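dumping this here so i dont lose it
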């Protein structure tokens, strides 16, 4: 009787798109050397961007003459756990925002200054610094209510075949996760380590930069940074990463 109930519960989880156990982080596919390098703050090159973010956090900017620390506190303790909840819907605008979008919204709304462009050291640094405050905490995003349409769009994107190669995200990151491709191991496509330092970039980059690389890889349309398509996909990927610890800045190959 008990075994039967377990099977029924498992079926319900699957039909609802909920994972019974967290998926393995991309870190689990790294070599032992790279895992050690990621864990060592003195050896992880991504920490250079975190340091830059810490500097910007305390620097007054814009017409308001405010720093991030002016509202949120000098030690950024108020940011603990924030990164686990993004992407999230902004209650005022109804827009879906990732962490980069939230930082830029704070700049325009409260600091009265222009937003940072994607992939600048400033935006990558501040995003990495804020996400770092949630190191080790599990991802847990909201996908119901006002977030539901965005989540549905992201899920559809993940399973839609695209590009000249006619491949979907799911075909790589579900059907072939753990298998080798061009000397690397295909991960489950989680974003819990971003902004991350990628060896192929020799730099820190955003999750959207990685998504654009995937689009290019299957010869599909590369959407603009901050596009609704990639934001919705980010939310779906965050749901897939539910329960997986934030590792920013992770190291990826």
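and the seq i came up w/
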């Amino acid at each position: 009787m008990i075994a039967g109930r377990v099977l029924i519960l498992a079926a319900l989880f699957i039909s609802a798109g909920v994972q019974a156990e967290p998926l393995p982080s991309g870190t689990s596919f790294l070599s032992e050397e790279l895992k050690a390098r990621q864990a060592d703050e003195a050896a992880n090159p991504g920490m250079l961007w975190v340091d830059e973010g810490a500097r910007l956090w305390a620097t007054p900017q814009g017409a308001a003459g405010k720093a991030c620390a002016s509202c949120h506190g000098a030690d950024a303790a108020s940011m603990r756990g924030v990164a686990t909840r993004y992407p999230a819907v902004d209650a005022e605008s109804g827009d879906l925002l990732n962490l980069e979008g939230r930082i830029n919204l704070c700049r325009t709304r409260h600091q009265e200054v222009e937003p940072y462009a994607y992939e600048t050291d400033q935006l990558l640094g501040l995003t990495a610094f804020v996400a770092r405050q949630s190191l080790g905490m599990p991802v847990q995003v909201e996908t119901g209510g006002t977030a539901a349409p965005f989540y549905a769009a992201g899920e559809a994107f993940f399973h839609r075949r695209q590009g000249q190669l006619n491949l979907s995200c799911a075909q790589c990151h579900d059907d072939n996760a753990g298998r080798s491709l061009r000397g690397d191991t295909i991960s489950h496509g989680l974003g819990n380590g971003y902004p991350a330092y990628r060896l192929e970039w020799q730099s820190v980059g955003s999750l959207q930069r990685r998504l654009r690389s995937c689009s290019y890889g299957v010869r599909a349309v590369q959407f603009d940074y901050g596009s609704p398509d990639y934001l919705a996909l980010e939310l779906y990927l965050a749901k897939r990463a539910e329960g997986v610890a934030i590792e920013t800045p992770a190291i990826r190959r």
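Residues 1-18 have pLDDT under 50 and may be disordered.
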